[in-house]
């Protein structure tokens, strides 16, 4: 039986807007048996130590499939599709096409639409100032969770370097000059391990040649 960790109580502005709805939708589509474990956000259940052990960023949704725990909405729905053999093609190119659009939904479309949500949270006359104050705090929260994840491990997902590290280091690269990683020594060391890999160094050289710039200028 799959357990879906979703919201039971939440602040009024979040009602009807949460991603546990996507996962429940996928569960209903696939017909996989499940139950819902409702969490009280307003009482701080998402910030509990117990929940942090199954949710890397202390967010909803999470599923527990008989001990196999998956977080992040896109990863969850892809897992449910693979497990059920529905909602996803059976050939590798077809599956990859579905993955492309899942990633596009959360990484491109969703990331931009979330910016609109942030703007809407603040008074319009003061939005720019508030965003400058609040977004770095949120970034620090996520980086702190990454720091915790990296305790006792070399790579982010598995014992070996994977495409998850390619993606995570690629995202972290955007803040490499900001100092945001300084409070997080494990995260900083992880980023350095990633970018010191020979394949990334070759990539830098090839990219610089392609654009006609110096490698030094893009490090």
What are its keywords?
single chain; 219 residues; alpha+beta; Glutaredoxin; Glutathione S-transferase Yfyf (Class Pi), Chain A, domain 2; 4-stranded mixed sheet; 4 strands
Task: Please summarize what this structure is.
By secondary structure, the protein is of the alpha+beta class. Helices cover 54% and strands 11% of the residues. The chain is globular and about 55 Å long.
Question: Beta fraction of the residues?
Answer: 5-15%
Number of helices: 9
Which spans of ≥5 residues are poorly predicted at pLDDT below 50? Answer: none
Q: Ends: how far apart?
A: 48 Å
Overall outline: globular
How does the major sheet shape up? 4 strands, mixed
Any overview of this molecule?
Helices cover 54% and strands 11% of the residues. It is of the alpha+beta class. A 4-stranded mixed beta sheet has the order 2-1-3-4, covered by helices on one side. α1 (20-30) links the parallel β1 (2-9) and β2 (34-40). α1 runs parallel beside α3 (73-84) and α6 (163-172) crosses α7 (185-195). It is globular, with a radius of gyration of 20 Å. The model has no long low-confidence stretch (mean pLDDT 91).
Task: Compile the SSE list and pairings.
Blueprint: E1 2-9, H1 20-30, E2 34-40, H2 49-52, E3 62-65, E4 68-71, H3 73-84, H4 92-121, H5 127-149, H6 163-172, H7 185-195, H8 198-211, H9 215-218
Parallel strand pairs: 1-2
Antiparallel strand pairs: 1-3, 3-4
